[in-house]
Amino acid sequence: MSNTTEMKKFTIENLDCADCAVKLEKQLAQLDTVRSVAINFATSTMHIDAARIDDVLERIKDIEPDVRIADESEKDSYSEDTSFLNKRELIRIGAVLLIFMGGLIFKERLRSTPFSFAEYAVFLTAYLISGWEVLYKAARNLLRGKIFDEHILMSVATIGAIIINALPEAVGVMLFFKIGEYFEQLALTRSRRSIKSLLALKPAYANLEKNGRHERVEPEQVEVGDTILIKPGERVPLDGVVLTGTAQVDTSALTGESIPRKVSEGKKILSGMIVTTGSLRVAVTNAYKDSSVSKIMNLVEYAVSKKAETEKFITTFAKYYTPAIGALALGVAILPPLLLSAASFQEWIYRALVILVVACPCALVISIPLGYFGGIGGASKRGILIKGSNYIDGLSKVKKVVFDKTGTLTEGTFRVLEVVPKNGYSRKDILHYAAHAESHSNHPIAQSIQEAFEGTIESAAVSAYHEIPGYGIKAEVNNRSIFVGNDRLLHDENIDHDICDLKRTAAYVVIDRVYAGYIIIGDEIKHDAQRAIDELKDFGDIETVMLTGDNEQVAGYVADHLGIDAYHAELLPEDKVQKLIEIKSSLNKRYKVAFVGDGINDAPVIAQSDIGIAMGTFGSDIAIDSADVVLMTDSPSKIPEAIRISKKTRRIVYQNIIIALAIKLVFVALGVAGIADMWEAVFGDVGVTLIAIFNALRVLR
Questions:
Q1: Is position 497 within any domain?
Q2: End position of a domain, from candidates 474, 505, 525
């Protein structure tokens, strides 16, 4: 493996537990050559940015000799088939359970044999079969100076039980610890399979067109400008524009939307989509590394490296929690027999062993990162890409959502929305004369009027064309005098008309100095923009604001129509940044401001906001790169959905913290009081871990 100076992904095998992952990550982070490192036990991956990777890998071998590291190019971390390992473990658990149950049934008879050899032979056999791996790892870690480790705690507890002749308890602890590990592995496998489904977007090949023939190649081999063929049932390998063909495409892998879309000549198509009907010839517009599917995979994968404050807190907490529990157990074993005449060492050592069994912090260390990753994965399935668990925390604290208008709340393209005839003229008359008069203009409003006119524009019919900046156009069409412009043009020409302030972008039409009517041109509001604003209001404590460079009338209309709480119009990009700073300063520092935009001019505001949200399908690359959250459907309604997911994720994470700590502390107290024995202690450790893991997996749904 060669040295590198950029973030790389590795898979990790044989990492014993989540606590081991935390300790390994901490020790690697202390190396001078390591810029950043994130180890995710739930996904068996390590993302690391280091100057000398080879040195880091050698250090890992020193810290964890049994751990195997593989480069992403050498091994797919999610392809490992664990069914054989699971069956082998199940057989071993079954064998131990049979021996253990036999020992319990015939315990009195076994004890009646000379020196109780038979009892020791049966229970120690079951103990060693179920616990030899734990004992081996405990001895190895002890020799390396790792005192507070779950394997050492479990070994001390069970060996102590054997010494005080509590053989069934010793075997029971090892057996149920092994059963807990088995179910824990099943839960993690389920999580990894869910993650695999998110990351299985990568297309296997591309049909590259060369000299009239098609050659199947790796997507990475295709260059911008090449032509590829996509057949029915194939996944789109690279972003591009359709040259020929019409097809239905399944976009659910990218957007979370199950409704198929139709694409045809001239339309944009994104990698990761699946062509369900028809064939398409596509001109490639992005290399594979810059394609939509590659960006999604990277966003989901590298999100684990940006940890939430809760994760960091638990890592620090575990550092002090385990030694504290160990010290408590030692005190419980020694002090009462020394200070109380009626207290026996055997009784208080047993109580201390119960505390040691309960002590392992794995329930927290596993379930909390798994909960955040589940939130990121669940959001990705719905077309919402959250770039880190720290942004999940941020989304849950959003109190103000600030929107750009054009391309965010509106479609971003001008079109004729309404034609209102006056003084006996028809809709057809107005569009005919207005389209001809505007035929020499490239202004977006002029082009939208031309597109709305269904007939053919005859350039020979237009004469005496004159554009008046800030007012409109004067022209002669078929020898008739035509004015097309704003309200100021009509007042300047003294044309009688019945309405001046339409509160929307309007083109008034005058034919032979007679007011013929007006055309409403607008950037149509997105179909789900209203739903987005309504759902944000349903939270009860979130305020909506709109910032736009459009004029006051249009901004006011959109804000009033959608029910936006406040708006600011006619803003330059730098004005938007200043307004956002003002909005942030007006809010309590505990809360967050989210900005939603799509254009290049939105990138500075997105970067300035607490949570930047970009439209991913048609948004600019710079806006997407600046954003913390990317909406793959360009749908505003995904914003309240993202906030709901973040709140649910945080709720589950805090549930796990409270449940795990509460139950463990209760069992520690019961252990000290002598009420709980080792059977209850096993539940306090293994049971709580499983509860926390399965609770965390709810986020994936």
A1: yes
A2: 525
Starting at the edge strand found earlier in the chain, the sheet holding 514-525 runs: 410-421, 514-525, 506-511, 480-485, 472-477, 462-468
Catalytic residue, candidates 149, 239, 250, 404: 404
Into how many domains does the chain fold?
3
Over residues 609-647, the pLDDT tens digits come to: 999 998 876 555 666 677 888 887 788 999 999 999 999
Asked whether residue 40 is domain-assigned, the answer is: yes
Q: Residue with structure tokens 């054997």? A: 162
Give the list of residues 6+ apart from residue 655 with CB closer than 8 angstroms, or none.
695
Domain boundary among 286, 304, 323: 286
Quick: pLDDT tens for 494-541.
Answer: 888 888 877 777 889 999 999 999 998 877 888 899 999 999 999 999
Asked if residue 596 lies in contact with residue 623, where contact means CB atoms within 8 angstroms, the answer is: no
Is residue 485 a part of any domain in this protein?
yes
Q: For residue 30, give the CATH number of its domain.
A: 3.30.70.100
pTM: 0.69
Question: In Å, what is the CA distance from 412 to each residue of 279, 409, 444, 522, 526?
Answer: 30, 9, 11, 9, 9
91-149 pLDDT, tens digit per residue, is 888 888 898 888 878 777 766 666 567 888 888 999 999 888 888 888 887 777 766 66
Domain membership of residue 245 as a residue range: 223-286
Residue 404 known to be catalytic: yes
